[in-house]
Amino acid sequence: MVSNILVIGASGGAIVARQLSESLPPTHRLILIERLNFAYHPISSLRGAVIPGFEENNFASFDNFFDKGSRHVVLSGTEVTKLGEDSVTISGEFEESNTIPFDYACLALGATYPVPGRPRSTSKEEGLENQRQMQRDIKAAKSILVVGGGPVGVEFVGEVRTQYPKSTGKAITLATSGGELIPGGWKKSLGQKIHTLLTSEGIDIKYNAKVNLPEDVEVGKLLPTLRSFELPDGGKVEADFVVMATGGKPNTSLVKQDHPEALNDMGLIKVEPTTLRVLDPKLGKYFAMGDCSDSPGPNTYFAVMQQAPVVVAHMNALAQGKGKASKAYKEPMNVMVVPFGPSQGHGQIGPFVMGSWVTSLGKGKTLFVPDFKKLYRV
Ligand SMILES: Cc1cc2nc3c(=O)[nH]c(=O)nc-3n(C[C@H](O)[C@H](O)[C@H](O)COP(=O)(O)OP(=O)(O)OC[C@H]3O[C@@H](n4cnc5c(N)ncnc54)[C@H](O)[C@@H]3O)c2cc1C
Q: What does the record give under GO molecular function (predicted)?
């Protein structure tokens, strides 16, 4: 009988699934489990929420992920609801059971973000319609408030301003709780260059401006009227469309419910830093990677791409009864690319701060959509 290897979460987890499906011995089959009924591309999500037609790039089906007749399986629209030592419980049924036994499993559960960084719906059709509605709402909005001065907030104002230049009169305010843009240990000059770019594009930047949204304000939707939001210095911002870009939270409630000791105090799954194997002995058959794990380095897709081959090497070695593989995870180089629409922006590679040309070529122009489509074979 064939044994199961599970990958739970089909964003960064899909890279592991693709590589494992090509290398697992015939004694094992891979089951990729994803709660959404589609694959989602967060990196292009902001442009998809602003520019009509672009939303199609954020979604992919799993129909061609494995070859027809492959022994490997994608269970999409299926949530893992409980983690056992050597089986998981799922929301649906697979082979007439709601539990799936496994030899080894990889947790790639990711993070939760406000829309549009993650979709509002678990159905592709609703997800697409939500983004189309957001495009219409942004078009209709007179004044847009983006809360958060990190890369997602900056990138979002860039998408809106590129589609609706200064001459359209659409007001855009970026409010951040700190005193600089792109905080978090990146070079000060990166934030300063982005400040200059945003100011030249007519973006009103409010520093040290933590915004407490009243409960009745729905983010990512056109508000019925212009609302006034108070700032800590006594100032006010008027807006009829608000987007939160204050970062993600690890999506690890599934682990917390039965294995709280497997999490660190930030809610990340604790892993051995070179093998990415979960440290909690009750979850000894699990690996964890990406935004849900405390693997060294930033939570980025770029890091996930470096982690996937490590998990694959170790799972393959275990499936072949070889024990440990020699491949070790090393923290990737610091890379931050912050486009402002397709052709402007700034970024940092290692110690070097880059301008528009490199930023556009490195990310802004394509937002890695061709790589996304290639991974899911669409
Ligand atoms: C706007 C934006 C722009 C970005 N730009 C960049 C960039 O340019 N470069 C870069 O490197 N990174 C970028 N990132 C970060 C990058 O998107 C994340 O680091 C990456 O998506 C992490 O991948 P992941 O697989 O760990 O998590 P996620 O992408 O969050 O995927 C987790 C998956 O697991 C599924 N899942 C969760 N729980 C369950 C369950 N119980 N059962 C089944 N399935 C489940 C979810 O539905 C989801 O599909 C950006 C992020 C955003 C929001």
A: electron-transferring-flavoprotein dehydrogenase activity; flavin adenine dinucleotide binding
State the distance from the centre of ligand 1 to the C-alpha of 45, rounded, in angstroms: 11
Ligand 1 binding pocket includes 109 (Cβ within 6 Å): yes
pLDDT at 369 over 90: yes
Question: Is ligand 1 within 6 A of the CB of residue 13?
Answer: yes
Query: Is residue 109 within 8 Å of 9, Cβ to Cβ?
Result: yes
Q: Does the C-beta of 43 come closer than 6 Å to ligand 1?
A: yes
- Residue 97 parent element (H or E): strand 97-101
Question: DSSP string covering 122-139, please?
Answer: SSHHHHHHHHHHHHHHHH
Measured distance between the N- and C-terminal CA atoms of the chain, rounded to whole angstroms? 32
* Domain finish residue from 274, 290, 319: 319
CATH of the domain at 363: 3.50.50.60
| Domain carrying residue 181 | 124-247+334-376
Closest Cα partner for 343 from 366, 373, 370?
366
What is the per-residue pLDDT across 219-269, written as a single tens digit (0 to 9) for each? 999 999 999 999 999 999 999 999 999 999 999 999 999 999 999 999 999
pLDDT digits (tens, 9 = 90+) for 290-299: 999 999 988 9
**Between the CA of residue 276 and those of 80, 117, 271, 291, 311, what are the distances in Å?**
20, 25, 5, 13, 7
Q: Residues of 304-313 as b/e, b for ≥16 C-beta within 10 angstroms?
A: bebbbebbbb
Angle between helices 301-319 and 13-21 (to 10 degrees): 40
Q: Are 293 and 156 found together in one domain?
A: no
